[in-house]
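Now for a sample.
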Amino acid sequence: MMDQQSPSAVSPHRVFAREDWARLRADTPLTLDEADVERLKSLNDPIVLDEVVQIYLPISRLLSLYVAAIQNLYAATRTFLGDEDGVMPFIIGVAGSVAVGKSTTARLLRALLRRWPNTPKVDLMATDGFLLPNAVLKREGLMERKGFPESYDRPALLAFLNDVKSGKQRVTAPVYSHLTYDIVPGETIVVERPDILIIEGLNVLQTSRLPKDGNAVPFVSDFFDFSVYIDADEEVIRAWYLERFLKLRQTAFVNPDSYFHRYASISEAEATTFAAGLWERINLVNLRENILPTRPRADLILRKGANHRIEEVALRRI
């Protein structure tokens, strides 16, 4: 009788300890210095140059190989179709909870990939620009669901990715302000045929129920060539979220134009209680219901410890 494995014992990912992953750097050159890393990291994300060497240089090497292979595949498809102007950017998705370090990872990848000769033009964009305006969220009773899948203008995001992937010369996207906590009316950013586009967001690996009639329902991740999920324990992310909120009280919240300006003058205890409430009511629920379930769909999972250090890397093999 053939031995059978339970579904829980089967994984589509190959897991690497930090030291084993670091060896996969091979001869990839270090093109960033400590000043670069300091400039690229986010608030409350104490990444150091050693993390770049051991974790991100191997990722950079892997992605350079992926991009070269995909570029050859796209070229073959263009030859088959007789399409002489078929520029098709390589799109990378970066997903994970609020406060887990997505922005730092995305910026580090952009900086490293820009230094590879076959990908000189690398753009980065967060999906925040596709959040519905606060006025719409308030009207629809969704302000407490901001960051949940239903709070985004999904058709607009899909149209943007479709235009980018189709090689359109200029594609525009709305601008989101973390200061005012809202879409900036009339402002746009422009993406012009990048070699690589990195898309960072909470729910970029989210799927939905497929229709029974078999009609196509595109997901954001359908446009990705590679995806990364930043992972950590719930309690660890909660601690990072509270720490970041308290630091913002002394920085961004001090600005009178900040949406959260009123929290700059309250006591630390009151601010902690308020932030903990936001975490429990909104961010933890979103993590459990929408973000964490997408983790197995990622091509690469970066598992962080309490000190923000990546302790384990899981690479999709199937």
The first strand starts at residue 13 and ends at 17. The helical segments are 18-22, 34-40, 49-81, 102-113, 134-139, 154-165, 234-249, 268-291. Strands lie at 13-17, 90-96, 122-126, 171-177, 182-191, 196-200, 226-231, 300-304, 310-316.
